[in-house]
Amino acid sequence: MTDWFEYIAAFLGFFAAHNIPTRPATKAQLQGLLGKRGFSVGYSVLSLAALYWLVMAASRAPVVVLWDWAPWQNHVPFTAMALFCLILCLGVARPNPFSFGGRNNASFDPKRPGLIRYTRHPILLALALWAFAHLVPNGQLAHAILFTVFGLFALMGMRLIDRRKKREMPEWESLQNATRQAPYLHAPLSWGGLVLRLVIAVNLYIGLLHAHGPILGVYPAG
Q1: End-to-end distance of the chain based on CA atoms, in angstroms?
Q2: 3-class state of residue 62 by DSSP
Q3: Which terminus of the chain has a lower count of CB atoms within 10 Å, N or C?
Q4: What are the angstrom distances between the C-alpha of 106 and each of 40, 98, 117, 140, 215?
Q5: Residue 214: what pLDDT?
Q6: 70 in the Ramachandran plot: left (φ > 0), alpha (ψ -120 to 50) or beta?
Q7: Between vectors from CA 19 to CA 154 and to CA 34, what angle results, nearest 5°?
Q8: What are phi and psi of 108, to 5 degrees?
Q9: 3-state per-residue secondary structure call for 182-199
Q10: Which residue has the higher pLDDT, 107 or 84?
Q11: How large a percentage of the chain has pLDDT more than 90?
Q12: Structure confidence by residue, pLDDT tens digits, 162-219
């Protein structure tokens, strides 16, 4: 059991890093000390650091093989990560009243909702895609637990946010219906913005592919 200590500690640390700072009283104190932008930056850095520790702890955990690796399995995350980058770049930092906390709700146009036409929670969808895609070539117990928990966490998060938003937003149902009635292919809010996001998505995919080995010690193309 002691061989699993770091892995368990990293898991607890990861969830503590995401839970404690977002509690209303703690968040208010931190925002008063750091400011809203400072809190967002600090929370992001803390989250990434906790994630990195958890992934590295999983790689150092005892090896318990659940299924054997096969070359075809690498193609799953290769393909899924392209979709991950696309969804992430099209969904982040855009008006979305359905997401956790909401963003630029007043500028959200249900007639031109962009990616929100297809999913209310693009960031969580991208996280679930990342997790389950990486589960396929990682048949060791520690990694299987890691990616399964992240995938289920993302899917459950969608339902929990929907339930909370329905309580907080009387117009949630009507706004959702209006969004679903938008054409499947509709003009973006800005063609220039769309092209920029696509360029960023391509570069993000290339960057992740090249950084994976040096940072995590696992070379996807190796």
Answers
A1: 32
A2: coil
A3: N
A4: 21, 12, 17, 46, 40
A5: 86
A6: beta
A7: 120
A8: -75, 125
A9: CCCCCCCCCHHHHHHHHH
A10: 84
A11: 57
A12: 998 898 889 999 999 999 999 988 878 788 989 999 999 999 999 999 888 888 777 7
On average, the pLDDT of the chain sits at 89
Which tokens belong to 96?
């979305």
- What 3-state DSSP class applies to 140? strand
Rounded CA gap, 137 and 71, in Å? 8
> Minimal CA–CA distance to 76: which of 127, 145, 137, 140?
137
Distance CA 218, CA 164 (A): 39
Q: What is the distance between the alpha carbons of residues 160 and 14, in angstroms, rounded to a whole number?
A: 19
65 by DSSP, 3-state: which?
Answer: strand
Residues contacting 150, CB < 8 A, separation 6+ = 127, 128, 130, 131
Q: Give the position of tokens 């650091």.
A: 49
Q: What tokens appear for 175 in the block? A: 């706004």
Alpha helix locations (H) across 65-190?
Answer: 75-91, 122-135, 141-168, 172-180
Longest pairwise C-alpha distance within the chain: 56
